[in-house]
Model the fold of this input.
Amino acid sequence: MAHNEGTSTLRAAEGTSTGMVFISRLAPNTTKVDIVNHLKARKIDVINCEQIEKTRHSSYASFWVEVSMRVFRRVKSPRMWPDGIYTRKYFPEKDSTHNGAQNTVS
Done:
């Protein structure tokens, strides 16, 4: 909930807020590069992208991507992806650092 009280000098930092999207039910041979290129073609910069190795299903691939909150809803939207792909907000495991990934995507 936002409070705009005229007496405060505090302001949110520009461009620091990010969100993570879980993308699943992709063809098993889908790569991180495929995901990044799909989003770049739609003018979306990817901060980070990693394949999720530990899944219950080997018949499809799953990834998470980190993007600016300015585009988070767009990336999470089913309209961003081909039919049959599932997306939702990604919640990393509590004891992991984004599935062990610490690299950013350029």
Summary: Residues 18-89 form a domain with the Alpha-Beta Plaits fold (CATH 3.30.70.330).
